[in-house]
């Protein structure tokens, strides 16, 4: 195809924008595959690109805008946890779906310790990636603040607090927990134990708050003997369930704040001779493949992890496109977007 720019030279991005009747930033969004463009606008830009014979100069564009055409997914957790928990595979799968029609490469990295985070910070400071998706961040983790200081477009999976300055995508942990407890109460359960997640994770804290508030709404007194804190793993689910049975042998229901912890709790309950659901009802959180394959099937709060991952990537593409167009990011404007996706209680045989 012959380029039709002025005097036979390569057509420019500005000429494409003028031909399509849109702004330069909109053309950049279309070329970079951002989903935040209407089909009508996308068609107009693509028609202008075809008519002018515009070919993006990827190397020049990357150099001029410090673009690397790559996005980093950072998980500040041990690799063993990443590969054992369905939550992470769902999130990354959703990210992959959002990036499938773009030219962006996806880099997965783990950064648990201080040394790893120092090395990663130096890497990011050299503009090796265009944006970051931070998955599973703890309130006391300094990595998110480092990303803020570096001014790299970043989206995190759930805020660290109610005042989170970075854009985030989360599930409605609070209402999800309330629906789990309300369901158990509707089944006639009154001594409902909680195996909670780490309270330095805002989402886990919200699940605990939902449990407490729903008990109060149903007229059931809070009993600290019925609450144990864990780390979302199967092993800790086993340990905490054993402790709960010792402290409160009369418990008749358990709400475990992850399916993995519910799986560990189930093993201990069975070893103790407790029938599920006849003696003890059991509810998890995630609605992962674990819930569907347990016997009996595990009642669980579904959080749409794949949709969360996809929404995170789309939000990040918007932040990157704004940066490429010279616009202030949502963080710099002081108006970061926080998306909260709904949960759904999926009832199975365990309750």
From TrEMBL:
Signal peptide: none
SUPFAM superfamilies associated with the record: lambda repressor-like DNA-binding domains (SSF47413), Periplasmic binding protein-like I (SSF53822)
CDD domains linked: HTH_LacI, PBP1_LacI_sugar_binding-like
Swiss-Prot/TrEMBL keywords: DNA-binding, Transcription, Transcription regulation
UniProt keyword Magnesium, yes or no: no
Domain HTH lacI-type, first and last residues per copy: 11-65
The keyword Membrane is annotated on this UniProt entry: no
InterPro entries: HTH_LacI, LacI/GalR-like_sensor, Lambda_DNA-bd_dom_sf, Peripla_BP_I
Gene3D superfamilies tied to this protein: 3.40.50.2300, lambda repressor-like DNA-binding domains
Pfam families, per database record: LacI (PF00356), Peripla_BP_3 (PF13377)
Database matches in PROSITE patterns: HTH_LACI_1 (PS00356), HTH_LACI_2 (PS50932)
Protein name, entry field: LacI family transcriptional regulator
């Amino acid at each position: 195809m012959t380029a039709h720019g002025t005097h036979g030279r390569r057509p420019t991005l500005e000429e494409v924008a003028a031909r399509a009747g849109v702004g330069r930033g909109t053309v950049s969004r279309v070329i970079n595959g951002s989903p935040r463009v209407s089909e009508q606008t996308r068609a107009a830009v693509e028609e202008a690109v075809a008519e002018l014979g515009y070919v993006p100069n990827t190397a020049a564009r990357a150099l001029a805008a410090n673009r690397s055409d790559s996005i980093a997914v950072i998980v500040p957790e041990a690799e063993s946890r990443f590969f054992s928990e369905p939550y992470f595979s769902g999130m990354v799968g959703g990210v992959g779906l959002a990036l499938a029609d773009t030219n962006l490469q996806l880099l997965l990295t783990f950064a648990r310790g201080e040394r790893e985070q120092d090395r990663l910070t130096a890497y990011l400071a050299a503009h090796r990636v265009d944006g970051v998706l931070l998955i599973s961040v703890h309130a006391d983790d300094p990595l998110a603040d480092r990303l803020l200081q570096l001014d790299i477009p970043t989206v995190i999976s759930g805020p660290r607090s109610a005042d989170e300055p970075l854009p985030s995508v989360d599930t409605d942990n609070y209402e999800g927990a309330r629906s789990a407890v309300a369901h158990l109460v509707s089944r006639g359960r009154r001594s409902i134990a909680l195996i909670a997640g780490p309270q330095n994770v805002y989402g886990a804290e919200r699940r605990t708050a939902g449990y407490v508030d729903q008990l109060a709404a149903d007229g059931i007194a809070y009993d600290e003997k019925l609450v144990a804190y864990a780390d979302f793993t199967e092993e800790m689910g086993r340990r905490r369930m054993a402790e709960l049975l010792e402290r409160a042998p009369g418990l008749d229901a358990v709400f475990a704040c992850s399916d993995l912890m519910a799986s560990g709790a189930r093993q201990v309950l069975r070893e103790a001779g407790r029938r599920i659901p006849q003696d003890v009802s059991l509810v998890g959180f995630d609605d992962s493949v674990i819930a569907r394959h347990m016997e009996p099937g595990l009642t669980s709060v579904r959080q749409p992890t794949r949709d969360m991952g996809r929404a995170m990537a789309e939000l990040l593409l918007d932040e990157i496109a704004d940066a490429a167009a010279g616009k202030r990011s949502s963080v710099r404007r002081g108006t970061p977007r926080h998306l909260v996706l709904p949960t759904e209680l999926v009832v199975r045989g365990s309750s």
